[in-house]
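dumping the sequnces here before i forget
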Amino acid sequence: MLKDITLGQFFPGNTIVNKLDPRTKLVLMIAYIASLFIARGLFAYLFMFVILLTCITISKIKPKAILRGLRPVFIIILVTVFLNIFFIRGETILFQFGFIVITTEGVVTAAFMASRLMMLIVSTFLLTYTTSPISLTNGLEKMLNPLKKIKLPVHEFAMMMSIALRFIPTLIEETDKIISAQKSRGADFETGGLIKRAKSVLPIIVPLFISAFRRADELATAMESRCYHGGEGRTSMKILRFSAADYIALLFGAIVVTIVVLLGIYF
Amino acid sequence: MALIRTEKLSHTYSTGTPFEHVAIRDICFEAERGEYIGVIGATGSGKSTFIQHLNGLLKPTAGFVYYDGVDIHESKHRTKEVRSKVGLVFQYPEYQLFEATVFDDIAFGPKNMGLPDSELKDRVYEAAGFVGLNESFMQKSPFELSGGEKRRAAIAGVIAMHPEVLILDEPTAGLDPGGQAEIIRNIMNYKNSRDATIILVTHNMEEIARNVDKIFLLRNGYLVSNGTPAEMFCDTEKLAKMGLKAPVAAIIAARLRALGLPVKDGIYTIKQLQAELNKLKSKGGVYA
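..and the predicted 3d for all of it:
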């Protein structure tokens, strides 16, 4: 069922990682991803892996949840590995059959690419699994606040994002329902050629769009009747404040980045 | 033999995840041809999950569903065949309308069954007739209709497939009393003219008190009891404990009984209550 897909699903928890300010987590995630791209050599990668493992352990995310989240990107990783193995031509040839040439350099690059991709994705899970969508957009809005000076609609952007996140599960549920309803009217989504299949989506898409517009309309009315008028002068119930833990975490992040850079230079 | 029957039917959602949830457990259900059955239960009791098994939309995690004595999951072909015999009208079916005209929308089901165009037209007009939509509606866009009309057009879309079992999930939710009565009448029309089995899911007891032959009561995924309306509605307090309200007539009868009036058991419609009270009145004496 559609319901079973993991799309940045938030698991409520009570660990230090859950309690960190969303801004801290955002910055740390960006720092981590940047370090992944700076990282050169086996030691740097191992170091990044250990850091990630530590963070996962602290945040108490179940390995099962991470594996399930990785499933949809598995094919992308596979394609990357495939391309690297077959198309990077190095010096030492491992295997040759006709025009197919596999070199040690290719295999090594493929392994690095795959692990980099996986670590990158898992690090984003760390953020989305431990941060509720609301606090995430809240943090994002606060971080982008300076951009308001150059007339960028930061608040509107954040509001749009939180509404979109809020409606993903609702629309998934709705799609499930519409599919069931059309199936019980004998609709067939599984057989037939390309054109027939494309046509068979129509009975799902039309009602889904209508309901999305209806919901949007209702939500707009509900927001207006509660006097929503954009970001100006709006205060928030939860005011974000850095705690000691946030400063420590940021310091820790800075150290990690430095070590990665040094590892790249000296090894 | 029962037309549709379930045997120890259970369903678990999201097995093996933190969101695992058992929706229904060991449900044994039976409906004969031409029977009118009410399925009642509070929100979250598993009613909707249960009915989605009857036409094979959901596959049981354990147990079986038999239609005409044959397992409906025996083969893919069988499941598809059963879908046209067991018509399922979802909650708020008007949200599934999608065609450009009411005619095309009602014709969607029969077309999927592979009926020829000549027969299609008869089916659509007949189905529209059952729900009281006349010819002037046929070329309109379904989105121009009123809420009640949309609902009826959507129900016609299922009726046009000539199901032998028609299942409706809260068909009157959100309609005004006039619209509600109209839908219930439409359903009765269809049942009487085709000797169809009707399974009505609801938590509106008044609605089913008058018509149904049998009631199945679900609670937390279990089938807790079943019987005739007279049997089911006599214990008004038990129903209240399950978050359901017995028909007003049954409640009044129970109150009068508690006050010491010799009102007989098994009263659940206003008409029965009226007759009983008139009988008491005609006896005269203290009751007059």
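Chain A touches chain B at residues 3-4, 11, 68, 177-178, 180-188, 202-203, 206-207, 210-211 (CB under 8 Å).
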